[in-house]
Structures are given as structure tokens and as C-alpha cells.
Amino acid sequence: xRKFLTLALLAILLVGLSFSAERVLKVLMPIGGGYTIxxxxxxxxxxxxxHPGVKIEMEFVGWEELWDKIIxxxxxxxxxxxxxxxxxxxxxxxxxxxxIPLDEYITSEKKAMYYDTVWDTVTYKGHIWGVVRAMSTxxxxxxxxxxxxxxxxxxxxxxxxxxxxxxxxxxxxGIYGIAMCGKKFVSTVTQFQQYLYANGGKIVDEKGxxxxxxxxxxxxLEFYKELSKYAQPGIVEWKREDLIKLFETGKVGxxxxxxxxxxxxxxxxxxxxxxxxxxGPDSDKPYATVIVTDCxxxxxxxxxxxxxxxxxxxxxxxxxxxxxxx
Length: 326
What we know:
Blueprint: H1 2-20, E1 23-31, H2 37-50, E2 54-62, H3 63-75, E3 82-86, H4 90-95, H5 108-111, H6 116-120, E4 123-124, E5 127-128, E6 131-143, H7 144-149, H8 158-168, H9 184-198, H10 215-227, H11 240-248, E7 254-258, H12 263-267, E8 272-275, E9 291-298, H13 305-315, H14 318-325
Parallel strand pairs: 1-2, 1-3
Antiparallel strand pairs: 3-9, 4-5, 6-7, 6-8, 6-9
Helix pairs in contact: 9-10
């Protein structure tokens, strides 16, 4: 009888544990720019409410530290289930086996949300490795008041762009013609690439050959260097996120960024305008920009792949995307 009662009690305890145990999904997210902890945690809580027994554990790091955090966690065998990454990192992460292809999870409805050119940014070696969460192209954001005060017109070529930066530049008053950044590779790449492609240059050609040392690329770098003379001092110590704050002060003529990052300057009373990045002297196109996307991927170390797919689909649904963008 005692043995029976012991077994019965054990069974009750096991049943209780099975009902109380939570499924935990670990998510690594960036902060900075338009990404706030509050916004992302709100989505996590809504998902938990709709999925009883599920706990979303979010970890937040700055964009500048995100890559190092990813590599460290992967190497330690402690990768999260889900990672928010720059789509430009997909080739490296896929080649090291850190993320899994998502082709089997992408429905026709999800595929229809974006143009093929957007899906191309998360496609590598014939497979889709992430679902796009954010997308934008870069433009020049400019201070209308400073342009008008200095009699500067919207630049349509590189000569005019350089002249505009020169006219606005007044360091004695703390006013700079252009804001630039160069702290860590992500800041340098996202800025310089705009000029590289605007001049018809490339990093690699269609055959995979490195061509960043060709004449068009060198000219773009020389122009970039000349333009930097009219930027704020110490640009190698500035991150992308810092430029937003600098522009908010109303003491910068222009800088390259995503359109949505002008919102904060508008809220601070800066009279903001936009213009396309002019093509360089060696380009056959009058303007140029780069499609930039961020995506959400699943790590190969995840033991909760089906749940990870559900969370990604929830986070990238039309409704959640619309809420976040607005």
C-alpha cells in the first residue's frame, strides 16, 4: 500500500511539473537607432499572452557590440534561439554553420510581403537565411535652415556636394558641413559604401574577384577623405547612432542615414529635408543608394526551432511591422 501511495504521489508531482514547466525562447536583439527595448519587450509580452507556457527571454546589446556578442556566444555553445542581425552578416554566419536555412518555413503569404530584391538580401547560396524585419535605403538628411542661411542649393553632383559642405562649415561656431562616422567597421562600411557605389565602384565583381582597389573605388575614397575635412572633429570616434544626436543639435548641414532616423530631429524642431545621394563622376547614374535590411534568423544551436519560427512570423507579421514602423 505504501509503495502504491509513493508511486501515485510521484506521478502527481510529475504531472504538475509537466504543466508548470515553461518553454523558454532566447532572443538576442540590438538597441540603438530606431530600436527600443520597450517596443521589442512589448511584442514579446504579447506573444507570451497568446502562447501560454512560453517565456521569451530577450537580451539587448548595442549594434556596435552585436557582432562580437554573436560570435562569442556561438563559440561558447551558448547561442540564443533567435538573433536579430544585419543581413550583410548572413554569408559569414551561414558559412560557419551558425544559422539554419529557413526555406521550408517561408510560406507564399510571407514571401509576398516583400519584393524579390528584398528577399535577395537574405538569400545566400540558393537559400533564405532570415526574415526581413527592417528595410530602408539611405539618403542625405539635411538642415534646411543652414542651407538657406548659407545660400546652398541641393547638390546634384559631387562637386556641388563638396562645395555645400565647405559653405556650411564654420567650426568656430560649432557648425559642421557634414557629419561622418568611422568607429568600428559597421560605421565605416555603411557610410563609405554609399560613395563607392555612387561612383560606379564595387567591392567584388560578378565573378567574386575583389575590385575595391580599382580606379572608381580609389576616387570614391579620395573624395570621402576630402569631404571629411568639413565634418565634425574626430570622426573615427563617432558611431552611426551618434550622428543622429549630433544632427538633432541643429549644427550639422547634412549626413547620410535612413529616412526614419530624421524623426527625432523633427521632434527637436530641426527643419529637416532630404535629397538623393548624387552619382560620382565615373558613374553612369545620376543618383545611387544601397538597400539595407536587417533580418531575424534561427541559430543552429536552437532546440526550439518550431517555436522560433512562430515567434519570427509573429514579429514580422504585417500588423506588427505596421505598428513598429508607425
